Amino acid sequence: MSLSLSIATYNIWHHPHKRQERFEALCAEIKQHQPDILLLQEVMSTFHPDEPFVSIAEHLAEATGYPYMMMDPYMDSPDEGLAILTKLPFERTDSSAAATANINHHCAIRIPFSIDGIRFAVTNIHFNWRASDIRLDQLRFVNEWIASQTDDTTIEFLGGDFNDFPESPLHRVALHEWVDLADSYATRTGQLAATTLNPVTNPYAKKNDGVTTPSRYDWLLCQRSPLPVTLQHVQLIGEHRLPHHLIPSDHYGVLAHVTLH
After folding, report:
1. 18 with 245: CB under 8 angstroms?
2. Which of 33, 155, 178, 250 is geometrically suited to a Cys-Cys bond with 221, CB 3.0 to 4.6 A?
3. What is the model's pTM?
4. What does 118-132 look like in DSSP terms, one character per residue?
5. What mean pLDDT is reported for the chain?
6. How far is CA 171 from CA 42, 75, 122, 232, in A?
7. Strand extents, DSSP E, 87-202
8. pLDDT band at 115 (very low <50, low <70, confident <90, very high)
9. Do the strands 154-161 and 118-126 form a parallel or antiparallel pair, or are they unpaired?
10. DSSP 8-state code for residue 149
11. How far is C-alpha 101 from the chain's CA centre?
12. How far apart, in whole angstroms, are the C-alpha atoms of residue 211 and residue 206?
C-alpha cells in the first residue's frame, strides 16, 4: 500500500497592504496547486473587521475547497497565528501551547493522520525572527514535543518559516534528525534550492526589515527514519503573478510531492 501526498508551507504575510487583492491572489494560487495539506504562517485571526475572530484561514478553506482546518493564534501576537488546511480527515489537533508555559515554545501545531493504514503527521512552525539562540531552543523543544506525541510507525513532516537560512547553526542541527526536502531534491536534480524570501524579485520582501539578500527561510522537512518515503518533486509556489492577480505574499511557498509506503 502506498499514498501519494502533497504538502505545502506558505507564510502569507500578516500585513494590511492590499489585503483583499492579495487574498484573491492567494486563493488563485492555492486552487492552481491544490496541495493535500497546507501549512500557513502569519494567518490573520480576523480577516474582515465586521467578522471578529473569523480568520483568513477559514475564508481560504471555504474559498478553495478545504473541508478540514485548524487555527491557533500566537500567544504573544493573537491577531495572527498558525493554521493547517487539509483535504484529509485527521485524528486530532495538537498545539505546543498546551505543553508549555514558555511563550517562545508556543510556536508549533501538529496534526496526525491515518490514511489507508499509513500513519503520518505534519507539524507547522514559525520560529523567532530576532535571535539564533531562541530559534535553536525552539527547535530543541519542537523535536522533543514531537517525540512525545509520535511512535515508530508514524512518518513525521515538519514545515514552516524557520527564519533562518541553510548552513546556519539551526539548519545544521535540524539535519541531525530531519531531511530538507528542497535541498534533497535540488541535489538530486543538480540545482540549487530556490530562495523563498527574495527582495530582488519580490517587491513585498523589500519591506521585510533585515532581509537584503535572497534567503531560503521556509523549509519542508521529513524526519529521518526507516519508514520509506519517496520524494517526487519540490517547487516554489506564489513566486509569479498569476493572470489578473498580485503576488500574494512577501514569502514564496514551498510545495513537495511525496509517496509514503
Report:
1. no
2. 178
3. 0.97
4. EEEEEEEEE--SS-H
5. 94
6. 21, 25, 19, 22
7. 94-95, 108-115, 118-126, 154-161, 178-180
8. very high
9. parallel
10. H
11. 23
12. 7
